Amino acid sequence: MKCENCTKKECSKKQKNDDSQSASVDALSSNDGFEEKNEFYALANAKILLSDCLACDNCMTSEEGARVFQQNQKELFRILNLNKKCDTSKHKVLAVSICPQSLPYFAAKFNLSVNDAARRLCGFLKSLGVHYVFDTTIAADFSILESQREFVQRYQRRNQEEHALPMFASACPGWIRYAERVLTNLVTSHICTAKSPQQIMGSLVKGYFARQQNLSPDKIFHVIVAPCYDKKLEALREDFYTALYNSQEVDCVLTSGEIVQIMEQKNVSMKDMAEVAVDSLFGEIKEGDVVRHDGKRSDGYLEHIFKHAAKELFGMDVKEITYKALKNKDFQEVTLEKDGETVLRFAAAYGFRNIQNLVLKLKKGKFLYHFVEVLACPGGCLNGKGQAQTEDGKPDKALLNQMEEVYAAIPVRLPETNVHVQKMYQDWLEGMDSRKAQETLHTKYSAVNQTASGLDIKW
């Protein structure tokens, strides 16, 4: 099997099931009572091509394909139209959560400051009929804090447990899907169990926020705006489904580019939209200026975990981190020295070429790293396939450079300083070490049987 470096054809399994998937989608749409056309009938169904899908190992089942097809702009407008019907029993509270790596795309594309872009995007979504617009940074706060704690615990158990180290980051769904379905037991026990920011945001919206609003989780339709298509597959995971309410934590994922398609369909620009403050999960409180975490092109797991581990394990305050580029700019190393000895060795590996090199080292027993921040996209999350692409599907390098400048200029806020997070740990999660915190903020990753050998794939 080959990836997008060799072909732009659709995944072979998706091609075989294309007709049956389309039929399934039509049936599902009909069952939902959304037969009439509206002004958005021209919007395309969600399709994942090899040039988009980062976990391209023929791993999408027919059922998954049908459900991914539903995760598009038409599904958003199906809910908006249902909310206009007289039958209020079918109405949904529509909440949209925006990933921080999507905002620089809107800012750069429309030549706005990142704060203006956030408020105008909120204004646009609310003009469509969305009730709440959230920023997922708070979910990343939880994910980073839980990942920090888990790394320290794993490091302290490293001599007692074979699979304690290395620890791999768990925030990238393309990497997770590849690990579970191709690399299997070689890697899965090393993956951090903290949920990704997307899925923690799902827990916050369908759990904490629903309770605050006195709503059943199934009465909320939760949309994520994200940089990449793999987030659509992540939202379908069985462990992110609540059977009691027949409700996914995230109901639909739209890429940043798909939001721009809606704007183009409506013939509007972000610059034309009114500025509306982004909502928070805490009643009438609104979000202030946009903030981010350490890390130039991602949520900064490496930097936060490195600094936390240096302090907790070795009593060292690390203010600045120095990256050492190895084979390429997407494979970098960070080390901590104490008394002439290297006590921590971290790496950032972006793109599947670098990921595969790391996996080969792990297989050969030559793996030197304690922690690796793994991201499927070369260049990190800002370079997600759902944004910053030219019309022919290639990276828009000029736009990406602008996005990186915008993102780097956003002020950094440490997760530990978020007073709302600390309060929620106590009031909602019953403490950081509680069973509820573990169940809400963590999951398990395990091998899924696949016929293809992932190490035969030529990235």
Number of strands: 11
- Characterize the biggest β-sheet: 5 strands, mixed
Question: What value does the average pLDDT take?
Answer: 85
Radius of gyration: 21 Å
Cα(first) to Cα(last) distance is 10 Å
Q: Give the overall silhouette.
A: globular
Q: What is the helix fraction of residues, given as a range?
A: 25-40%
Give the helix/strand class.
alpha/beta
Task: Supply the number of helical segments.
Answer: 17
Neighbour order of strands in the largest sheet: 3-11-10-9-8
Topology order in helix (H) and strand (E) letters: HHHHEHHEHEHHHEHEEEHHEEEHEHHH
Q: In what range is the share of β-strand residues? A: 5-15%
Stretches with pLDDT under 50, minimum 5 residues: 1-41, 47-57, 451-459
How does this model look, in words?
The chain is an alpha/beta fold and 459 residues long. The protein has 17 helices and 11 strands. A hairpin with a 4-residue loop joins strand 5 and strand 6.
Keywords:
disordered N terminus, alpha/beta, 5-stranded mixed beta sheet
Q: Which helices and strands, and how do they pair?
A:
Layout: H1 12-16, H2 18-31, H3 62-70, H4 73-82, E1 93-98, H5 103-109, H6 114-128, E2 132-135, H7 137-156, E3 167-168, H8 173-183, H9 185-188, H10 197-212, E4 220-226, H11 230-235, E5 241-242, E6 247-248, E7 252-255, H12 256-266, H13 301-314, E8 324-328, E9 331-338, E10 341-350, H14 352-363, E11 371-375, H15 397-409, H16 419-427, H17 435-441
Parallel strand pairs: 1-2, 1-4, 3-11, 4-7, 10-11
Antiparallel strand pairs: 5-6, 8-9, 9-10
Helix pairs in contact: 2-3, 5-6, 5-15, 7-10, 7-13
